[in-house]
From TrEMBL:
The keyword Secreted does not apply. Keywords: Nonsense-mediated mRNA decay. SUPFAM superfamilies: P-loop containing nucleoside triphosphate hydrolases. PANTHER family: NONSENSE-MEDIATED MRNA DECAY FACTOR SMG9. It comes from the Eukaryota. This is Nonsense-mediated mRNA decay factor SMG9. It comes from Salmo trutta (Brown trout). One of its GO terms (biological process) is nuclear-transcribed mRNA catabolic process, nonsense-mediated decay. Belongs to the SMG9 family.
Length: 371
């Protein structure tokens, strides 16, 4: 007798569909997109990881490696599209808005367009794009876009990774402080979906923040320099409510076997990643050549993945959210960020200030933004 089995799974039991590539959560016009909803489920065991950084620092590549891809794979197949050589040569940016990807382990990754991007500014100026009335100057608009995205991530992510490709730009920390100041307040329990209690009533939510130094050079792995880098970031972030300590440690990756755990007296959440595609530089062995460091990118990425905090211990709101609840919550936060009176007032003050003579700061990558 031939027996057939039904494949009609209940919604809760049906295996989640695997995403092949990222999709838009926020498009290049800063509009919310609904397409991610079909990949989400009514369960609470999830983690949300976002990323910010300046142009060309490797945000999309890092997010692809953390979520779905391996360093040896062809970058053209990465789930988050990285800059092509052509885009690099003309100084353009690949990512626009906010891209969404969820793994089968229920980790949501949010990749973002570069903050304070000179290519976005150049596009606005050269294409004579009409700005909203509240944004009188193109660079004010670019700055406000960057603040909106960052303030949004600070509200809807468990972990926010800040990627740099050199150490360090003081203006980036000023930007983080501004975004933290303008971050939306955690909505009260009455505005959240029904569920178990999350953060205490009246308390404000702040995410874990990880500083990732990408494309690090050999000298930056020197213990003395590493210690100085941690001390510098600790002082720059001393007055921040962002959780910049205690989330992860490079010393757990066993690439500094001679160092005691208390060597980094002021250890912050910082990881260093060397260039993964160079075994020799100018005929001399690079950082990846010594046997002990050949697998450094794999070790650090594995360490970063293993150190991601348990979302149960860091609820985003006053109720525990399911994946679908989170999507609706994030949509409401994004709408609130775009309509924020605090951001509008900050924009007005910035526009007023920019009417005065300013000293232009090119930063480490030549980005022309006023100081």
């Amino acid at each position: 007798m031939h027996v057939t089995y039904s494949c009609d799974w209940p919604d809760q039991a049906r295996p989640p569909e695997k995403m092949k590539h990222s999709i838009k959560l926020v498009d290049d016009q800063m509009n919310w997109c609904e397409s991610a909803m079909e990949y989400l489920r009514d369960q609470t065991d999830m983690l949300v990881v976002g990323v910010i950084g300046l142009q060309g620092t490797g945000k999309s590549t890092i997010m692809s490696l953390l979520s779905a891809n391996a360093p040896e794979e062809d970058q053209r197949g990465y789930v988050f599209r990285a800059q092509t050589q052509e885009i690099k040569e003309r100084g353009g940016n690949q990512s626009t808005g906010i891209d969404f990807y969820i793994t089968q382990e229920r980790v949501i990754f949010l990749d973002t367009q570069p903050i304070l991007s000179p290519s976005i500014l150049d596009h606005l100026i050269n294409n004579d794009r009409k700005l909203a009335p509240e944004y009188k100057l193109p660079h004010t608009y670019v700055e406000m876009q960057s603040l909106q995205i960052t303030a949004f991530l600070f509200t809807v992510c468990h972990v926010v990774i800040v990627i740099q490709d050199w150490f360090t730009d003081i203006n980036l920390y000023r930007f983080l402080q501004t975004a933290e100041m303008l971050k939306p307040s955690t909505p009260s329990a009455s505005h959240d979906s029904t569920g178990s209690s999350g953060t205490e009533e009246g308390s404000e939510y702040y995410p874990h923040i990880v500083f990732l130094q990408n494309k690090s050079i050999r000298d930056e792995f020197c213990p003395r320099n590493l210690k100085n880098m941690h001390m510098a970031v600790d002082k720059l972030m001393a007055h921040s409510h962002l959780k910049y300590k205690g989330t992860l440690s490079m010393l757990d990756c066993n690439i500094f076997p001679g160092l005691d755990r208390d060597y980094l007296e002021t250890e912050v959440n910082m990881f260093l990643l060397p260039r993964a595609n160079q075994s020799r530089v100018r005929g001399r062995p690079s950082l990846l050549s010594p046997p002990g460091l050949q697998r450094t990118p794999h070790l650090l990425l594995s360490g970063l993945q293993a150190s991601q905090p348990n979302p149960v211990h860091v609820p985003l709101s006053h109720t525990i959210l399911t994946e679908k609840n989170w999507f609706h919550y994030a949509a409401r936060i994004w709408d609130g960020v775009k309509k924020s009176s605090a951001l509008s007032e900050y924009s007005r003050l910035q526009a007023k200030q920019h009417c005065q003579p300013v000293v232009m700061n090119t930063g480490g990558n030549g980005c022309p933004f006023p100081t």
